[in-house]
């Protein structure tokens, strides 16, 4: 009995300790499954970059985005993207600066708690790339912005078994166009936006 128990516990320990192995992600954009997708907030992130006094670049991140994507790789022009990002989550690893950024002098999170991007046009630019033009609403102002997106890969998430597609995207705005002009030009008006996003397919 002791030997059987020891053998059973040993087998269980191997199962528990076994690493989670992901399937090989597919980098062929044409093979992506068409359908409706929801943003995986836990594995998506928005980062902004400004030039600080002409001396160095400074970064901030905005976690907690939510959104949806309608995608058919065979007819990319019909794709629809709608993403909302809370601005109160801003993080620069400097707590004092984070508090300043959510104040009325900058993002004014109390009055304008989110920024939102809604696509209006998607144009394929390569086998794995596309320009996504849409309306960005930030700080109460809506203006057209184009994001240059790159498909990274798709596959089944080994943790939750959801079919997931991943993208990187980038774009540039002048923050003063949205009424956020504090310290311009000492802190650059030009603001680069970089995005990493994972979308999980809904339904079959």
UniProtKB/TrEMBL annotation:
It comes from the Bacteria. InterPro entries: Lipid/polyisoprenoid-bd_YceI, TTHA0802/YceI-like_sf. Residues 1-22 form the signal peptide. Keywords: Signal. PANTHER family: PROTEIN YCEI (PTHR34406:SF1). This is Polyisoprenoid-binding protein YceI. It comes from Novosphingobium panipatense. Residues 36-200 form the Lipid/polyisoprenoid-binding YceI-like domain. Pfam families: YceI.
